[in-house]
Amino acid sequence: MNKIELKHLNQTVYHNRLDNGLNVYVLPKNDVNNIYATFTTNYGSNEVEFVPIGEKKMIKVPLGIAHFLEHKMFEQEDGVDPFQFFGERGSDANANTNNYKTTYLFSGPEFFEENINCLLDYVQSPYFTDENVEKEKGIIEQEIKMYQDDSYTKLYEAILSNSLINNPMKDPIIGDIKNVRTITKEDLYKCYNTFYHPSNMFVVVTGNVEPENVFKIIEENQAKKKFPKQNEIIVKDFKEPDKVKKKKEVIKMNVTVPKISINYKINCDKIKDISPRRVRQYLSLFFDIKFGSTSLANEKLREEKIITDSIDGVVVDAISHVIYCTACETEKEDLFIEAITKEIKNKEVSKEELERKKKSIISSLIFMSDNIFRLNDKVTADLNRYQEIINNNYEEIKSLNIDEFNKVIEQIDFSNYNIVIVKKDV
Prior knowledge:
- By secondary structure, the protein is of the alpha+beta class.
- Helix content is 41%, strand content 21%.
- The chain has helices spanning 65-72, 82-87, 112-123, 130-148, 151-163, 177-180, 185-195, 211-223, 276-291, 296-303, 333-345, 351-368, 372-386, 393-399, 402-411, and strands spanning 2-6, 11-17, 23-28, 35-41, 49-51, 59-60, 92-97, 102-107, 201-207, 234-235, 248-253, 259-267, 312-318, 321-329, 417-424.
- The chain has a seven-stranded mixed β-sheet with strand order 1-2-3-9-4-8-7, with helices on both faces. Strands 11-15-12-14-13 form a five-stranded mixed β-sheet, sandwiched between helices.
- Helix 3 runs parallel beside helix 8.
- The chain is globular.
């Protein structure tokens, strides 16, 4: 058992790697009366071209299959409904799929042993038939149609599809109706057998638990199961250019107030002598200072009634690139575009502004240390993104400085951007 200290946060993560390759992480917090457990595979919507385990040729699977697979994991051959199982024990259960991972989870103060065994068992017991796959297609199609009627979803999907050229994130996580209709049980088993092996997965448990007990329960569960030896997973690599795919798009929908987003595509790997992770930190600070809820630009745009509320800032991590979105509701799109593009050219930020934002981030870190859900999310995100837990976030933020900030911002090319507008369908 290894210990990983989250420095300055007074938290310890205990780690154990099982014989089958499954990594288990436990962060005990005995001052809370709850337990949160997640079971994650490093497999999301981006992995659409790969070499299936046991085969030699690369294949391309239908868009949306990772999300479809997530849905199907809750259907068990023995007829047991995991949601009902957890509910009967006073626990909540759910799952989610993003571009990089799929996570299955539960939370509840009691019946931990029963709950964690259920979580491991249903995720490791795929049951796909022609009939249940066909049935699921109709459910997913209705979900897709529901999202297509949502203006925020349309805006976000257009941002990605217009910003990215080769990156699989350009396509919706849920896929589209055409692709979903082509999914077969054979497709699902190929994806499952390739990406749901224990060596490509990890468990994170936070809350009122004893690490030794958690490891013991999970080890006993896994010892009852047999898994084939797993070779390296081969996924198609892609090169993403710096330019955006489309400079402007206007979408007409049934909205009361038009929505607009200006989206900057930035290659973090091009900044010299500073790690891409640190570059991202400086960029986040820059955009927060410029357009965050307490920024001067935000206040001015509200006072001049150019925007109806604050600017929403969204950060999309697209591996080599980052997309920073500044979005709002406005009837005055031209004035908003003019204000944002003018402000982005002014790269000047004071040391005082930088230090103030750093203190805000540090406060959030300290607040996170008391929340088992946020702690679990932090550990899960680190493992998925960096294959390790970043244990010095506090020191990282403290070490950010104005000289390095200016060095980074001066090298940033803000010319690769696009505009997406959702307007009233008159």
